[in-house]
Amino acid sequence: MELTAQQLRGFDGLDASKPIYVAIRGAIYDVSTGKGFYGPGSPYAVFAGREASRALAKMSKSEDDVCGDLDGLSDKELGVLADWENKFQAKYPVVGRLAS
Predict the structure, then answer these.
(1) What letters, b where the CB count within 10 A reaches 16 and e where it falls short, cover 45-66?
(2) pLDDT of 25-43, one tens digit each?
(3) Which residues lie below 8 Å from residue 90, measured CB to CB, with a gap of 6+?
(4) Which residues pair with residue 21 across a beta bridge?
C-alpha cells in the first residue's frame, strides 16, 4: 500500500474504526497495538498519522520537527533515528510506504 502524507493523516487515531499509522523513513508502521503511546491524548499522539523521522531523531515532540526531512541532522541524531527504526521494526508491522 502506498499513501500520500495527506492520506496518512487519516490514520491518526481519531477515527476508532481505523488503525493508527506512523511513518519512519517512508515506511508506514501500524502502531495500533501501541494506542496508549500513539492514540489521541497519549504522550506521542503528535506522531500518529504522520512521517515522524526528524522528530524521533531529535527526540522532539515539536510540530515543526514532525516530518521526514533529515537535512542537517547530526550523526548522533541519525543514530537515534536508527535506534527508533529498529524498535519499530521489532514491534510493529510495516503496512506500506509513504508516496514521495
Answers:
(1) bbbbbbbbbbbbbbeeeeeebb
(2) 999 999 999 999 999 999 9
(3) none
(4) 30
Local confidence band at 100 (pLDDT 50, 70, 90 cut-offs): confident
The string of pLDDT tens digits covering residues 66-90 is 999 999 999 999 999 999 999 999 9
Residue 28, all three cell numbers: 508506514
Cβ atoms < 10 Å from Cβ of 100: 8
pLDDT of 83: 98
Distance between start and end Cα atoms, the chain: 13
What is the SS3 assignment for 44-89? CHHHCCEECHHHHHHCCCCHHHCCCCCCCCCHHHHHHHHHHHHHHH
Strand order in the sheet with 50-51: 2-3, 94-98, 27-30, 21-24, 50-51
Find out whether 39 and 13 touch, Cβ atoms under 8 Å.
yes
Mean pLDDT of 5-15: 97
